[in-house]
Amino acid sequence: MKNITRPTETINDILDIFLNDRPRQQTVSEIDSNRTALIALENQYITKTQDNTLYEISRGIPASITLTEESLIRYYEYRMLERDNGRNFYDKLLISVPYNTCPYCTIKNVTTIDHFLPKSKYPFLSVTPTNLVPSCRDCNTDKKVSYPTNRDNQTFHPYFDIVDNEPWIIAELLRAEPLSFHFKVQRIPTWDDNKYSRSLTHFDAYKINELFSSEANNELRGRRLFFKRHIQRNRTELIDHLNETYQSYLDSFGLLDWRTVMYHCLINDDWFLDGCAGNNYFN
Ligand SMILES: [Zn+2]
Questions:
Q1: How many angstroms does the Cα of residue 256 sit away from the middle of ligand 1?
Q2: Which of 38, 119, 227, 259 has its CB surrounded by the most CB atoms within 10 Å?
Q3: 3-class SS at 30?
Q4: What is the rounded CA–CA span in Å between residue 269 and residue 239?
Q5: Using CA atoms, how far apart are residues 51 and 96, in angstroms rounded to an integer?
Q6: Distances from the Cα of 232 to the Cαs of 177, 179, 228, 235, 237, in angstroms?
């Protein structure tokens, strides 16, 4: 999970953008009569991200809104995706993420916009900027938890949760043939139970072990000759090489990148550094 900067636009700005696309008079009236309620719902959303209570937001159409579910979803699918000014906002949001990397999985490229709380359940948030998160297609469509139902099954929110500064994802080298990695959540001592539960939910929902271990296993395979050359000279040379690689990834990609986590694991695995006795990796 990578924290990213949230859009500077508010729902108020988005409604103005829709008005700039010259909608019919009926839509203008609709927007005018729902503006205050949509702003209040955006404020509620932001407040609830602060104390981890997004799950308390009611699904469906709130009493304060006079628009139907269909028309709210159409605000996204038509006014944001199909109209000039709406589309400009969407496209700008899509390319706003550093290095185009999906903030949920930190592996794949951003190709779409995810509704953090899905528009099918929360139509009144379908065009609220803080609910729109650039993501890869898999994280958008495959995520296992579609909406939170309690305090613990809320995934981390890339705009509001800062969790990429602590090593809560770790790797373990499985002594199998061929050698492979398994990634898992490590509880950070200063975290409360809720944050720990949310880290497990996020890790599971975005299939982090599956994604990270696939990349890391390929890296391990591809680096084999290189590592072997170092270890044949001596153990210290291999450690120095692994340390340098680790520092370089840490510096460029941060603590939670699969490469940083993978090399941290190798540096701390004496069995690996001693030559993987009983395993063919260095043979
Ligand atoms: Zn992703």
A1: 14
A2: 38
A3: helix
A4: 10
A5: 26
A6: 21, 19, 6, 8, 9
- How far apart are the C-alpha atoms of 155 and 203, rounded to whole Å? 8
**Identity at 114, one-letter amino acid code:** D
Question: Which residues make beta-bridge pairs with 174?
Answer: 180
| DSSP secondary structure letters along 159-177 | TT---TTS--EEEEEE--S
Q: Which of 252, 216, 185, 204 is nearest to 105 (CA)?
A: 204
Assigned token pair, 182: 């398994």
CA of 180 relative to ligand 1 center, distance in Å: 22
Pick the closest to residue 89 from 15, 3, 139, 35 (CA basis): 15
**CA 225 / ligand 1 centre spacing (Å):** 31
Q: How far is the centre of ligand 1, averaged over its atoms, from the C-alpha of 139 (Å)?
A: 4
Expressed in angstroms and rounded, the spacing between residue 264 Cα and the centre of ligand 1 is 23
Reply yes or no on whether the pLDDT at 264 is more than 80. Answer: yes
Q: Read off the pLDDT of residues 107-164 as tens digits, 9 standing for 90 and up.
A: 999 999 999 999 999 999 999 999 999 999 999 987 655 899 999 999 999 999 999 9
Q: Which stretches does DSSP call E strand in 51-131?
A: 112-115
DSSP bridge pairs for 181: 173
6 vs 96: CA distance, rounded Å: 9
Q: Where are the domains of the chain?
A: 11-141, 169-273
Q: How many CA atoms lie within 13 A of 280 on its CB side?
A: 4
CA of 136 to the centre of ligand 1 (A): 4
- Model confidence over 1-31: pLDDT tens digits? 999 999 999 999 999 999 999 999 999 999 9
Q: For residue 105, report the distance from its CA to the centre of ligand 1, in Å.
A: 4
Compute, in angstroms, the gap from residue 67 CA to the centroid of ligand 1: 32
